[in-house]
Amino acid sequence: MDAVLPVTVISILLGALIAVIVFGNYFRKRRSEVQSIATSEVLHANQKPSKPPQPASKKSHSKPHTHAADKDANKRHHPLDVNTLKGHSDSVTGLCFSSDGHSLATACGDGIVRVFKLDDASSKSFKFLRINLPAGCHPMAVAFSDDSSSLVVATHNLSGSSLYMYGEEKPKAVGETKQQPKLPLPEIKWEHHKVHDKRAILTLVGTTATYGSADGSTILASSSEGTDIILWHGKTGKNLGNVDTNQLKNNMATISPNGRFIAAAAFTADVKVWEVVYSKDGSVKEVLRVMQLKGHKSAVTWLCFAPDSEKIITASKDGSIRIWNINVRYHLDEDPKTLKVFPIPLHDSSGTTLQYDRLSISPDGRILAATHGSTLQWLCAETGQVLDTADKAHDGDITDIAWAPRTIPIGDKQALVLATASVDKKVKLWKAPPNPS
């Protein structure tokens, strides 16, 4: 009995110890579970106030709106950038202002010619007339004929170049109504095909013939990528004469504002000039070669006439701009004179002079606009000084430029406006920089 008692006591003590250990582990486990649940609830409770950031996330959704607003502001990245005409779905290949400056025609690679009404160059939207060309025709250039309701379009396809003159039929008066009649759609008044054989038309320029006995008709000059230039009567489409530069290929050709001279920049450094001779009845009698501008050391890339038709401005690959006086007695063998020579003030990063692709002079004769690739410059025509530069005027190469022939409204002001077209599917309007003193 005495030996059994200690064993029993030891067993009870061991059992109690085991029970304490087991129950201690159980209670510690339960406590940790309770603490974890409490911690989870506290964290969950603390997360509820963090939901207010949701409005912040909503604000983040408004960022695209803010970004869009910034993007709209950045579109006019240059102080002279007034507006952008959108809606073209392909490269814009040519443009032209009407004689009153209130209509701007654009030729687009999508086969559509658009005529925008520029009542205010700063407007947010513009009304425009849409002209769908015949299937397969790719417009290369446009020129107004007579007025803003008549338009000549130069096109090209596999069979060659064509000219189409679109005009509006005046609505027949049916009686006076309060409602304004809809403008009639333009229709083809005349057309010519294979006008330069299978060669593409490079330039098409029109003007009102006012020199000498000219009758005030619109005449147009088209030049091909070959060597030929053709003179056309705007209203009738009659061929008024052909000339040939005989210089391997043409770069471009244009006609003086008064309709007296035709000048061409071609493969060589010389510029050839022809005179349009008018009969007493105002019609074109003949086209005669009368002078040659010699002085550049390399090919002339572009030229334009001064508004008075007595001077020509040329840009050459030799890195210079020349202003020529062509108001000379050429019939007495008097040669045209170089009035001024300016270095082209445009250089690449290495300092190499870049050539100008296009030139256009303002209607007051004071500002010369010039382009190279996507760069646009304004120069003082008197001194050659750079007035302003837009390094990336477009997102691609500039294809055409033209000044409005007179000031047009920009908001509540009037200003000289330059239009530029590009492969980036846009047409931009720019106000002229301040006139040099």
UniProtKB/TrEMBL annotation:
Pfam families: WD40. InterPro entries: WD40/YVTN_repeat-like_dom_sf (IPR015943), WD40_repeat_CS (IPR019775), WD40_repeat_dom_sf (IPR036322), WD40_rpt (IPR001680). It comes from the Eukaryota. Gene3D superfamilies: YVTN repeat-like/Quinoprotein amine dehydrogenase. The chain crosses the membrane at residues 6-27. Residues 40-84 are annotated as: Disordered. SMART domains: WD40. WD repeats lie at residues 85-126, 293-327. Keywords: Membrane, Repeat, Transmembrane, Transmembrane helix, WD repeat. PANTHER family: OS03G0858400 PROTEIN. This is Anaphase-promoting complex subunit 4 WD40 domain-containing protein. It comes from Nyssa sinensis. The lineage of its organism: Eukaryota, Viridiplantae, Streptophyta, Embryophyta, Tracheophyta.
